[in-house]
């Protein structure tokens, strides 16, 4: 069996919670500003942050929302996001993170699936949050109800099993089906922080303009936890905004930009970029979707810096590969992190493939998730008995150990780095009167990466395309919206009933020629 082992020295597996790990990076620098709210400039020192985490943890515990409870968090990036996240972890609970643009329908689903005990949001989203939450308590950040929860400080981490306790439950559809709760332990999060700090050469003093959403595992681990634990700081941005991103990067002398490919496109092409002094930027780091060599080179040239990417997946806490700055290869997704091994497996025979050949990427390491919440079947289909995580991505490894993502085997669509699960859209479509079958695929797009489009079998009484789009506009978040609807007589399927997505993709490609 040809297993590709990491070429990095292993990092130690610490017996710490994620909050203990983050506090380790803060206690020796209490007066450093570590969190700044980008739009207002409001800032928190390391001491402020630790104090508020402990006080909120105390209040949550006193209110019966601590140990063993599930706290849902639906907010844009802001300092309080990090406070709530770490307060729940410190109190021995579990955080499930929701996209703040979710509709009431989407909120209801995740709260029920995760069995959440309370929901935190911001006043702007309170009405939608309450509509989705039903009888569940909703607490809006910054209101009296929130202030009342800042109680007596909880001085120490509430004891939990570092390896077995699920501290965070982000949602991912994985290789197939509907979004599922991804169970990540303290061990998963802590080790990934240490793996990234080592392999991505994270340095004390790094400040980043933080627009990558904290609810998604990339922003959660890399921006929030690596920056806090690694001696850095984050300027939080509630959403991506090019002028603000450039301004913050310039004013705070950011060393690195953590981005996704659509932002790489803006950095390579937008005229505004020339109006800022970005000479502090040494590196642009992209992840969450493919960034081709051409775009990567264009960004590096424009900003006169190193341009590289990492590869990750919610189920990997999320990172398994990063490209070292000292040996960047355009288009590569990187080398396996410390403590991490990978295999390239032939999708037909299951045989391990040698360097240079394309197959499914499998990963093994301490950052591999515990499994999917309440879903042993999906867990067993994703993690082998001996601990290999099947990514559902097709990759190749060159003879230097660089991994290149070449295709996606799984049905997942990525819109600007956000997950769109075809199964979720298909279920929403066939729930409509008169629609008897549906298939959703991704249409390649230069800016978004992919756009969700649908094939629909419409019988008597079915709504027309405009009515379908209007309905989805009310029930699903903006990034899941369909960009085309094709009414077809039938959906192509295999003998076992699986949608032949490749055939649909080929049909659309042929029409475009
Ligand atoms: C081609 O997107 C993520 C995590 C991204 C991430 C985080 C920190 C990347 C690098 C990093 O340092 O998670 P999910 O679960 O939303 O989506 C996972 C999927 C992968 O299976 C793959 O299909 O996103 C795609 N993907 C990529 N594809 C992620 N990174 C890449 C990449 N090239 N570099």
Automatic annotation (TrEMBL):
Record key words, sorted: Ligase
AMP-dependent synthetase/ligase domain mapped to chain residues: 29-373
Full protein name: 4-coumarate:CoA ligase
Keyword Ligase: yes
Domain AMP-binding enzyme C-terminal: 424-498
MF (Gene Ontology): CoA-ligase activity
Keyword Transmembrane helix: no
Family, as annotated: Belongs to the ATP-dependent AMP-binding enzyme family.
InterPro entries: AMP-bd_C, AMP-bd_C_sf, AMP-binding_CS, AMP-dep_synth/lig_dom, ANL_N_sf
């Amino acid at each position: 069996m040809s297993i590709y082992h990491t070429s990095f020295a292993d990092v130690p597996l610490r017996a710490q919670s994620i909050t203990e790990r983050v506090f380790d990076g803060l206690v020796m620098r209490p007066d450093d500003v570590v969190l700044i709210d980008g739009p207002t400039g409001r800032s928190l020192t390391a001491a402020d942050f630790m104090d508020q985490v402990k006080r909120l943890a105390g209040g949550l515990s006193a209110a019966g929302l601590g140990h063993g409870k599930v706290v849902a968090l639906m907010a844009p990036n802001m300092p309080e996001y990090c406070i709530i996240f770490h307060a729940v972890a410190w109190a021995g609970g579990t955080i499930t993170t929701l996209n703040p643009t979710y509709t009431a329908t989407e909120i209801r689903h995740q709260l029920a699936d995760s069995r959440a005990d309370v929901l935190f949001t911001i006043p702007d989203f309170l009405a939608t949050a309450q509509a989705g939450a039903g009888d569940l308590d909703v607490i809006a950040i910054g209101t009296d109800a929130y202030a009342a929860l800042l109680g007596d400080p909880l001085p120490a981490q509430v004891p939990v099993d570092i390896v077995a306790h699920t501290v965070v439950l982000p949602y991912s559809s994985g290789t197939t089906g509907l979004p599922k709760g991804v169970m990540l332990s303290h061990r998963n999060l802590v080790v990934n922080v240490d793996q990234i700090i080592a392999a991505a050469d994270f340095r004390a003093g790094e400040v980043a303009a933080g627009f990558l959403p904290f609810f998604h595992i990339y922003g959660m681990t890399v921006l929030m936890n690596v920056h806090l634990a690694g001696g850095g700081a984050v300027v939080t941005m509630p959403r991506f905004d090019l002028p603000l991103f450039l301004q913050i990067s310039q004013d705070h002398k950011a060393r690195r930009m953590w981005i996704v490919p659509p932002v790489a496109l803006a950095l390579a092409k937008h005229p505004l970029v020339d109006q800022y002094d970005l000479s502090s930027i040494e590196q642009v780091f992209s992840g969450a979707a493919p960034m081709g060599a051409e775009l990567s080179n264009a960004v590096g040239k424009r900003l006169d810096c190193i341009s590289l990417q990492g590869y990750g997946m919610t189920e990997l806490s999320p990172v398994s590969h990063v490209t070292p700055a000292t040996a960047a290869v355009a288009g590569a997704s990187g080398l396996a992190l410390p403590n991490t091994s990978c295999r390239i497996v032939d999708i037909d025979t299951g045989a391990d493939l040698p360097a240079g050949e394309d197959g499914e990427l499998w990963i093994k390491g301490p950052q591999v998730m515990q499994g999917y919440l309440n879903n042993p079947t999906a867990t067993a289909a994703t993690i082998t008995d001996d601990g290999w995580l099947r990514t559902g991505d097709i990759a190749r490894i060159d003879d230097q150990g660089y991994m290149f993502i070449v295709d996606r085997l799984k049905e997942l669509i990525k819109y600007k780095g956000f997950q769109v699960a075809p199964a979720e859209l298909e279920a929403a479509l066939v729930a409509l009167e008169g629609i008897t079958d549906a298939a959703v695929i991704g249409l390649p797009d230069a800016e978004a990466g992919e756009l969700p489009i649908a094939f629909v079998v419409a019988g008597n009484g079915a709504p027309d395309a405009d009515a379908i789009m209007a309905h989805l506009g009310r029930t699903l978040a903006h990034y899941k919206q369909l960009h085309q609807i094709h009414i077809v007589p039938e959906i192509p399927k295999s003998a076992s009933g699986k949608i032949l997505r490749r055939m649909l993709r080929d049909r659309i490609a042929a029409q475009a020629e």
